[in-house]
Amino acid sequence: MTISQRRDRLRRALADAELDALLVSDLVNVRYLSGFTGSNAALLVLADDETPVLATDGRYRTQAAHQAPDAEVVIERACGP
């Protein structure tokens, strides 16, 4: 099963449960649903939107773009001076 298929399955489950969204903060589940392997992330999956939102910090800007290209990447805080 592809990552996209996993999220499709999750969105169907959310719709069946009449939920609008799921915020995923466990890193194992973030990886399962996005492919992102960084050590700081959360993933927001909306029931009615195919584009998840991946929140992480500035250390992972490039990695997130490469590992989760179909996600909207939001940087929580800047990294560095």
Could you give a quick summary of the protein structure above?
The protein has about 80 residues and is α+β, with helices and mostly antiparallel strands. It has 3 helices and 4 strands; from the N terminus they run αβαββαβ. Strands 1-2-3-4 form a 4-stranded mixed sheet.
Main β-sheet, spatial strand arrangement: 1-2-3-4
CATH H-level homologous superfamily name: Creatinase/prolidase N-terminal domain
Q: Globular, elongated, flat, extended or rod-shaped: what is the shape?
A: globular
Give average pLDDT, whole number: 94
- CATH topology value: Creatine Amidinohydrolase, Chain A, domain 1
User: Gap between N and C termini, in Å?
Assistant: 41 Å
**Strand pairing plus helix content: what structural class?**
alpha+beta
Query: Helix tally?
Result: 3
In the CATH hierarchy, the architecture is: 3-Layer(aba) Sandwich
Give the DSSP E fraction (strand runs of 2 or more residues): 15-25%
The main pleated sheet reads as: 4 strands, mixed
CATH C-level category: Alpha Beta
Helix-strand pattern, N to C? HEHEEHE
Number of domains: 1
Pick out the low-confidence regions: none
The value of Rg in angstroms is 13 Å
Q: In which range does the helix fraction lie?
A: 25-40%
Instruction: Please tally the β strands and state the result.
Output: 4
Q: Mind explaining what this structure looks like?
A:
By secondary structure, the chain is an alpha+beta fold. The protein has one domain (3-75): Creatine Amidinohydrolase, Chain A, domain 1 (3-Layer(aba) Sandwich), CATH 3.40.350.10. The protein is built from three helices and four strands, in the order αβαββαβ. A four-stranded mixed sheet has the order 1-2-3-4. Strand 3, helix 3 (61-67) and strand 4 (72-75) form a beta-alpha-beta unit. The longest helix is centred in the first third of the chain and has 14 residues, at 3-16. The protein is globular. The termini are far apart. The relative contact order is 0.19. The mean pLDDT is 94.
